Amino acid sequence: MAKPSSRSSGQKATVHDQKLDRANGGELHQVAEGDVPILTTAQGGPVSDDQNSLKVGARGPTVLEDFHLREKIFHFDHERIPERVVHARGYGAHGYFETYKSLAKYTRADIFQRAGEKTPAFVRFSTVAGSKGSADLARDVRGFAVKLYTQEGNWDIVGNNIPVFFIQDAIKFPDIIHSVKPEPDRAFPQAASAHDTFWDFISLTPESMHMIMWVMSDRAIPRSFRFMEGFGVHTFRMLNAKDESSFVKFHWKPKLGLQSVVWNEAVKINGADPDFHRRDLWEAIQSGNFPEWELRVQLFDQDFADSFDFDVLDPTKLIPEELLPPIPVGRLVLDRMPDNFFAETEQVAFMTQNVPPGIDFSNDPLLQGRNFSYLDTQIKRLGSTNFTHLPINAPKCPFHHFQQDGHMAMRNPVGRVNYQPNSFGEGPRESRQRGFRSFVEVEEGPKQRLRAESFADHYSQARQFFNSQTAPEQKHIAMALTFELSKVETPVIRERIVSHLLNIDEGLAETVAEKLGIKDLPRPADAAVPTRDDLEASPALSIIENGPDSFAGRKVGVLVSPGADAALLKKLLSAIEEEGATMEVIAPQVGGVEAADGNVIPAKHMIGGGPSVLFDAVVLLLSEEGAERLAGEAAARDFVADAFAHCKFIGFTPGAAPLLRKAGVDAEADEGLMVLGDPKAIAGFIESCRKLRLWSRETAVKL
Ligand code: HDE
To answer: What's the pTM?
Structure first.
């Protein structure tokens, strides 16, 4: 059949025309009308040729008259908008929030009135320090910003995956961010806190020490967005119909449990798949495994606040969950990826000041500063006061106001009257009853620049956090501190950090000092108030203590060779799927391998492109000959050696022995290495995988 052409039927192409078409690639690009939509300009004008600009003769100058060229290039030149100053690298998804039960006793917010009510939601996860194109597994805090399109306007909970923050006062935010971003004279390092300026600022800012413990923990290298918690961080208020106030802190708990990777793994993931977190969310949602979090609230009154050891307005402190158990109030489900990343994820505008009636702010000085910042930042980034006209930012409830005009106004108030009060009885009116009312708090005091004395304890909760970690987690913190400080070139900065660590845990300080070659321990830093040693450990702060009870949502990488046992692979796959996990096959070459029974086992990755860091557990399904051959390939040896070093469970067929040997792994080293033969062994392997990692191996591997 002849290729379709835009030439109208009956009109014969000359030989000259045909030659020209070929030279222009014309036939390849032209389509018959009615087949697919006709390409148009932004003004809607149909385009006849999108391959060639308008010229005088085939080799002559381009003419100014070419409005299609001009429009196309003009628009392209303006494709970028300023990336977010912080949280530039992000990924989002749509979903809904479902209310469990009425919270009318505490809040009049409509979203919390009716059990079973579903509210549309959009969530954006992010890293803080890196630019838009940076890698997903940077050691960093993760943003966890939730937009709830409630019946009373948009409510944004713009939180993080860590419940405390570096600083106590908004005025220090530009400083901490400048210090962590690439250093201004050399423009590196990208998306990394391991450099002098960051640690200099931290060493001079003791209030950051609690947050530093979190950022040096595995919380800062999550395995997936789906396996991390979210926190509103600040103390907010809930107000009921009688305007009675309760304080509230917001927590998002992942249904699939907490999980992180180890640093050596994170570094390798960044090389193997810089989009690891994006891809994970994309794959989960596209395959119908919708990630879910439970919203839990810590509710408390003024008496609790007064009796609590720390100031509830201080964002460097948390309220231990054991002291005040968070109450489940609803669930958040993400079930749809955006149609277009830029239109939705890039242009979404979160603002802490977006709260519905019934939710209110506390005087946390960081929150107060944020309420100022976020409107400003949207104007800078999105370029118009009308950013709320973008579909992703527009409320989904009825709304009426008299704001009008400005750049890119999509809708203006209709009719004659655009003000109030007016005599025409037209237009919306305020409602004392249904509108937003602030908590009537009586404030008085001298106007001054002062930090409250109740904010003075910078080490006690840092110590409590460290004491709440399991042994492997404590070790990871020590290793992270050592790594980061080893990149700091100014000795006094390293020593200053050790002097702070001495106030948190002597053993930790000594380990870090030793690894940094600091022979004489410095004096402990001056603490404004004595550090508490009576705060009880809080198991809720550990990742390992809050892992999943199944292997659901995780991924097994199966390395196969020619001559592999296809029947065993089939059994393995059904066991993995039954658990709610997924499997990907890695082969020596693209196209897969021929199994022992002659069938082809297709593969998703070839060995160089599918390292074991991309998987939660691995299986070596190899014939002896295949294993011998793979033992000669560095990528295959790394596959095994890394899986072992990262404490992953490794299932293998007896034939895999030569590869294990060459990778330096003793097949009988520990219970994490399991021979897979019969279905019972497969069941045992899956059961072990539920623990995610065999941490006891870590002392042997000495990463
Ligand atoms: Fe933000 N923050 N922030 N922040 N923040 C922004 O707003 C700011 C803070 C957080 O996915 C910016 O739209 C100031 C704490 C998240 O789009 C900017 C202060 C917490 C996101 C801004 C803080 C956050 C942002 C950049 C100190 C955890 C990403 C682009 C007073 C509770 C939201 C933008 C998204 C984004 C300012 C402190 C979380 C510049 C001034 C504390 C998750 O307005």
So the answer is: 0.95
